[in-house]
Write a structure and sequence with these properties.
It comes from Hyphomicrobium album. This is Amylo-alpha-1,6-glucosidase. One of its GO terms (biological process) is carbohydrate metabolic process. With about 725 residues, this protein is of the alpha+beta class. It folds into 3 domains: about 30-255, Beta-galactosidase, Chain A, domain 5; about 260-660, Glycosyltransferase (Alpha/alpha barrel); about 670-725, no CATH class. The chain is built from 16 helices and 34 strands. Strands 6-7-10-11-18-15-14-13 form an 8-stranded antiparallel β-sheet, covered by helices on one side. It has a 4-stranded antiparallel β-sheet with strand order 1-2-3-4, with no helix packed on it. Strand 16 and strand 17 (about 210-220) form a beta hairpin. The two termini are about 45 Å apart. About 50% of the residues are buried.
């Protein structure tokens, strides 16, 4: 039965102000930054342990999209200490900085020489605040007077203000001292919510004002002074141990439980280090929700639920950590749209794009309180559900989610395809929404060959591939649940989509899929990474798969570090842009997974390029994106200045690439582990998996390279009594 297709005013995607929701790239200080996170609270601090030491900047302590501390600075003897060194703990739970005093001069002469006071600062974040221990040790030969000042402040800025969005009005702020060790900074927002930050000290300072604490220590040689600073978010009721060290131990134990899912080792020390960092970052971003754990997208700008990001991260890690997918699916099902709303780009059955908890979202100054302007989250929800079911055999969850899957399928057929041509299109329903609603959502990311911006409604190439995969998987689930007629219909729709896809999107001239069809069904014939994301779905013919693989690995797209989002031959190519020539690790992982179907060695080039990039980046961490400049001998990749780091789907990329290289397919329904043409290059040597969940048991395997370069599989443990197949 056909359904009436709702009508909506179309806002042309080639116009409209998109700037308010971009990241403002203001100049940042020269000090290195570290990100810490626990549940809904995160902090960005500098290498000294300060926050915006000069009084302005984008760092801070944040909770639920509001900044709760915008300034923290420690001076010793009236001066900023000198940095000796600082580091993030390997598990990502705390930062430790070693500093010392500079030369202290009075009236043109040095009265106290440098390097005589050792200053240690240890910082960690807990759910609802930040703690810092300041330890000062006198290594001079004399007793010294040591003045120490801690300045602090907060502006209660919304995360969108921090990103550069201006506001005509703000709420009211007030600060007061509560006693001789504690200050409260309060804010009454325009949304009617009272927010407050408390800054307290473990020992009373000599003087305490509303934004500064001053100490006057007298330390004999080898004597030490300790100050614990506690920043707590008054709105969060989360009991913490009184002791600084007990709180840190709790944080580290909690993190160890989160990261226990990762049990991979290889013959490459570089890959081991990168996987360890990636696992730590994914675990750091995982946040407890009523539906289970959900990977928040990234720190600092996207430390919240994003539908697309969570779905792709869960897909990347599904083979090794299926529990994450369960939490993502249940959360997004609970938030699935049930009504149409232009402000939030919502329609019945649509899956969430983004959820925000700050003042601006509450007042609808931005549309992102619960925003649905994502064209791909809905088919990706079905894709993840189908792969999760195949991976785990969890019939109970599939039955629970089936009404949500059917609602998502209806959205794809009706609201997602308003002109009824079988392709899913997007356009924003209100001028406040996102202009572009695929993963490349910057305003200039979808264009024609001459550089002009695409006129909507827009049908993205990779979204049609997601739709094909979604309907194929939904048909399998429907048949398993006893809905045979529905399964037949979904299979028919998928076959029809596959037939029409190549005719509409393939360009014989470019030998590539167009990035999109415009509102008049004219193709946007530019060579982009989007075409590479099509390959893993099965919608493309084998001949087209090989052509696209060649494009992805050509110098126009492959920089040596990874595949660019846009060919360097395109008019809009800019290697420093967000989506028009940069390199995104998650994009590369999805592309390589498709290429691996026909060319394992080609997929290896992408894998090795990204691994080499990670090893030349801070903390061996792949960020959200980096610049697309060609790889040059002796040079590191060029960073994108305001990329999120860590970013969940970037952290999942190496795991997905490893799965693609080894051809691992775990089927919980048949209790089977299958390795399809596993490829172990010489630099990798071997891969060992410990305690992979299969059915109700566990499997441990070692895949190694033999003397002839072929892969050999050794079963170490098989408590699951699984069938292990290598082909």
């Amino acid at each position: 039965m056909s359904e009436a297709r709702p009508k909506i005013e179309i806002v042309d995607t080639a116009s409209g102000p998109d700037a308010p929701f971009g990241v403002s790239a203001s100049e940042r200080g020269s000090r290195e930054r570290y990100a810490l996170k626990a549940e809904d609270t995160f902090a960005v601090i500098d290498a000294h342990g300060d926050i915006n030491a000069d009084g302005a900047g984008s760092d801070g302590v944040f909770h639920a999209d509001t900044r709760y501390l915008s300034h923290l600075r420690v001076t010793v003897m009236g001066a900023d200490p000198l940095l000796l060194g600082s580091s993030l703990a390997q598990d990502g739970t705390y930062v430790h900085a070693d500093l010392t005093n500079p030369d202290i001069a009075r009236d043109g002469r040095i009265v106290f020489g440098k390097d005589q006071v050792h200053i240690e600062r240890t910082v960690y974040v807990h759910a609802g605040g930040l703690r810092q221990r300041l330890m000062l040790s006198n290594y001079s030969q004399a007793t010294i007077d040591l003045p120490v000042t801690v300045s602090f402040n907060n502006d209660f800025a919304d995360i969108f203000e921090v990103r550069g969005t201006g506001r005509a009005r703000r709420g009211t702020r007030a600060a007061r001292t509560l006693d001789d060790t504690e200050v409260e900074i309060g804010y009454m927002g325009l949304d009617g919510v009272a927010r407050a930050t408390k800054v307290s000290f473990s020992q009373p300072p000599a003087s305490l004002g509303r934004s500064e604490a001053s100490y006057q220590f007298k330390l004999s040689s080898r004597e030490r002074a300790v100050i614990d600073i506690n920043v707590s978010i008054a709105n969060v009721q989360q009991p913490q141990p009184k002791s600084f060290l007990a709180g840190l131990l709790r944080a580290r134990k909690g993190f160890a439980r989160k990261v226990a899912w990762c049990s991979v080792s290889t013959g490459s020390n570089d890959l081991n280090a990168a996987l360890e960092r990636s696992a730590a970052d994914v675990s750091l971003l995982m946040t407890s929700t009523p539906s289970g754990l959900y990977p928040y997208a990234g720190v600092p700008w996207f430390s919240t639920v994003f539908g697309r990001d969570g779905l792709i991260t869960a897909l990347e890690l599904l083979w090794i950590y299926p529990d994450m997918a369960r939490g993502v699916l249940k959360f997004l099902a609970a938030q699935q749209a049930t009504a149409s709303d232009a402000h939030s780009d919502a329609d019945p059955g649509k899956i969430l794009h983004e959820m925000r908890g700050g003042e601006m979202a509450a007042r609808k100054e931005v549309p992102f309180g619960a925003y649905y302007g994502s064209v791909d989250s809905t088919p990706l929800f079905i894709v993840l559900a189908g792969h999760y079911w195949q991976r785990t055999g969890d019939d109970m969850l599939v039955r629970e989610l089936w009404p949500n899957i059917e609602a998502a399928l209806r959205w794809m057929d009706v609201s997602g395809d308003r002109d009824g041509d079988g392709f899913i299109e997007y356009y924003r329903a209100a001028s406040s929404g996102l202009v572009n609603q695929g993963w490349k959502d910057s305003g200039d990311s979808i264009s024609y060959a001459d550089g002009a911006l695409c006129r909507g409604p827009v049908a993205l190439v990779e979204v049609q591939a997601y739709a094909y995969e979604a309907k194929t998987l939904a048909a399998r689930m429907a048949r398993h649940l006893g809905h045979a007629r529905r399964a037949d219909e979904l299979e028919r729709q998928a076959a029809e989509l596959k037939r029409n896809f190549a005719a509409s999107f393939w360009s014989d001239e470019f030998e590539c899929f167009a990035i999109a069809l415009d509102g008049d069904k004219h193709p946007c014939n530019i060579v982009t990474s989007n075409a590479g994301q099509v390959l893993r779905s099965g919608i493309a013919e084998d001949a087209h798969v090989r052509k696209i693989a060649q494009h992805m690995l050509s110098p126009h797209l492959f920089s040596g570090w990874g595949v660019r989002t846009l060919s360097d031959a395109a008019v809009r190519y800019n290697p420093m842009s967000y989506h028009n020539g940069s390199i995104w690790p998650h994009d590369n992982a999805l592309i390589a997974a498709g290429i691996a179907r026909v060319d394992r060695v080609g997929a290896e080039r992408i894998f090795k390029g990204l691994l080499d990039a990670a090893m030349r980046m801070d903390q061996q961490r792949l960020p959200e994106l980096f610049c697309g400049f060609p790889r040059r001998r002796g040079r590191a990749p060029v960073l994108y200045p305001v990329a999120c780091s860590p970013q969940a789907w970037a952290s999942g990329a190496l795991f997905y690439l490893l799965q693609a290289m080894l051809g691992i397919d775990i089927d919980g329904r048949s209790n089977t582990v299958r390795l399809d043409r596993p490829h172990i290059p010489a630099w990798l040597g071997h891969v060992e998996f410990d305690d992979l969940a299969v059915g109700d048991g566990r499997v441990s395997l070692r895949v190694s390279r033999d003397t002839n370069g072929a892969a050999a599989v050794t079963v170490i443990d098989n408590s699951a009594d699984a069938s292990i197949e290598a082909v």
